[in-house]
Amino acid sequence: LLAPGVNIKRTPLNGRNFEFLSEDPYLSGMLGKAFIEGVQSRGVGTCVKHFCANNREYDRDRQTSEVDERTLREIYWPAFEYALEAKPWMAMCSYNPVNGVFPSENKWLLKEILRDEFGFDGVIVSDWWAVHSPYRAVKATLDLAMPYVKSAYDSLKDAYDKGLITMEEIDERVENILRLIEKTETEKAVKYTREEKHAAAVEIAKEGMVLLKNEGVLPFKKGKVLVCGKYATTPPLGGGGSSCVETDFVQADLCDLMNGKTEATFIRGGKQSWHLEYTPPKVKDDYMRAYDSDAVLICIGHGEIIEKEGMDRTDIKLSPEQEQFILNMCKYNENVVVAVYAGSAMDMSAWIDKVQGVVFCGYAGEATNEALASLLTGESVFSGKLAETFPKSIEDTYTGTEMGDGFCERYSDGVFVGYRHYDKYNKDVLFPFGYGLSYAQFAYSDLQVEKKGELEYEVSYNITNTSNYDAKEVSQVYVKDVFCMLSRPEKELKAFAKTKIAAGETKRVSHTLDMRAFAYYNTALKKWYVENGAFEILVGSSSRDIHLKAKLQITLADETQMSQK
Fold first, then answer.
1. Has 127 been annotated as catalytic?
2. Which residue segments constitute the domains of the chain, with CATH numbers given?
3. Which of 127, 143, 286, 347 is catalytic?
4. Most CB contacts within 10 A, which of 269, 445, 525, 527?
5. Residue ranges of the chain with pLDDT lower than 70?
């Protein structure tokens, strides 16, 4: 399976963001690691990708990513480092040159970092058509060039005949591939029924959807709900490109699933064409039905037309026609809820203040409608959180609408990516990293930080569910370096947990923070380094909603301040 993609969501314009996991390296790595462990426990191999600094689709096959080493190590490499702990069978290198050298022939990236430092011993495969020099790729320890072309074979043979590569180097690459083939023959897949697979898909979809706004309109009560938009009947499974996976499961109609809990009826609300032109049929009738309803649910978003491999978005808004449709519906009904289907951050500023509720569905797969209906009617409780910041506008991001010059994109934002950027410049955001509402309410208390060893601290705290709903809460632990000799982010995510808490119940949550949680990469020393001094432990329900704080003074001996890991 050519997944997971753990590239950082550096800009919300990246057309392939829907495949990636987060703007945060720790979260990306932990989610990628869990994905690998889960898939491979079923006898199926994974391929972590795309190493590295592949954060645009625009000119991805030739535009070099110019990134300093500290930024690579703190932002763009950790997700791979953490994911590799789960021992994926393969790793894929990216198209884009990094500091002027294609990854497929970059010995420093593939041999010294990926294999020697991070300990990867599986097959390194190129992205399709990403090998430009077969013999240099062998030198860099790339094992498999995809797809097969005879000219690459001829080039490799010619290089061998000229003494540019040795048979020993070729044998090493072949041995890795043979071990992979042997593994596919010995690993036994776990069998599941179609019903079991779909039940799992429903639960996964429920866990991931995020409630962004709720002015008391959700869960829907008994009454008339007008459901608009074609995604209510055919929700998008994902963006476009090589990640597209077809399903033989036919989605149940959202209205049918909601009926019984509420009285739902459907109107298409317009036709979404290739150019996203919205043509409202029977406009007056539609608005009269909205006026006569107790609430309106608009199912709207992007899909493979806008978010796709090989191209970037030009903005992060809905189409003008879609935005106008929302605003028009708000004129005729005061309880409008918008369900957004998209794979990355969205600017909702044109309509967010007019609606009463917003649900970010993402691309939730074959069980989208079942999960959404269960959440909207209160049968299930929202527990998803945003893995990226939603800015108020694209102009608030560091990169803006710039896409490089076709030859080079300079990562001059350094380590200040995602919420780190908005914190540094004290920018207001639409929805912060880690944000997500619930029907339940939670109270945080009793933060304790206990030193467990010279290089470890245990962080623990209580979460109380003060509502009448059984629910889950995703708590987040951030570390702040209060004073440092170089510029560091205001705070960085270092632990998180999703905890199921019954109504009225209190649970204690614990995490262990090691030296890496407090360190930055010192390029002069070529090591991870903890600068002695004051730190703060911050516990919250999002990066901008911190409930508990604790101060911490770290004093380490010189020899323990530095680490390779």
1. yes
2. 17-186 (3.20.20.300), 194-384 (3.40.50.1700), 442-563 (2.60.40.10)
3. 127
4. 269
5. 189, 269-282, 559, 564-565
